[in-house]
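Try it yourself: sequence plus adenosine-5'-triphosphate, in.
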Amino acid sequence: MAADTPNAPPNAMARGMTVPTLLELRNVDAGYGPFRAIFDVSLSIAKGSVLAVLGPNGAGKTTIARLCSGLVVPTSGAVVFNGVDITGKAAYEFARLGIAHAPEGRSVFATLTVAENLELPLRRTRARGEVETEMQRAFEIFPKLAERRRQLAGTLSGGEQRMLSLARAIVEDAAFVIADELSLGLAPIIVDEVYAMLGRIRDGGATLLIVEQHVRHALALADAVVILDRGAVGYAGTPAGAREVLGLAI
Ligand code: ATP
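Structure, out:
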């Protein structure tokens, strides 16, 4: 994909605006030790847009998410954020730039309460007085978590843990939120809720990368889609085009 407009939100494109790119992978190869998982992948994500990364099991979706948050370092190619090459920087430096990763699975501290799980990232970045204000903001977005603020995170349902994981990613005012398989194993009604929240996070001005097996939900929210095929880009384009490639009824 070219650097500047292909992933622009459709409303911006309709107005003929050029939307700047927030994050780009340029000709990236990556893997784990001798195993190569990603082959010459290029993609770009426009500011304020939602990119869905789809593909079958093992296609490399999570590895793309990890590349975007600095957890995996490319063996060749570049990661560019806001026009700056950040390839090889430590994951905490990615986090400082406003890149937040809600990883696959139940990534919460099970033996801490809901409130403590949110306080922890906030205490790193906020002055004391601001922590409570930011917590309230998170609880407004996730009212279910507010009801359970004193409950141990390990005793929340799977869907609630996923919400907490997402809330942790956004309390830091992330400019770029990476959500990896948030719907995995959740009841359809909870998936609807999680996606409604992702929509709210986008409406709040964040840019999103969504890795998802739940293709229909992802396509409904996405402005642009990349379908991976054995570690390479098989398709890059609009959600409508992706529906055709995937053989889904429009
Ligand atoms: P899924 O939908 O099953 O989660 P995915 O599309 O997210 O799959 P990845 O998790 O990115 O795929 O994995 C891509 C390839 O890299 C797979 O072959 C996987 O086995 C391998 N892989 C992923 N993580 C590791 C790791 N930590 N160590 C070694 N190999 C890994």
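One thing you can check immediately is this: The radius of gyration is 18 Å.
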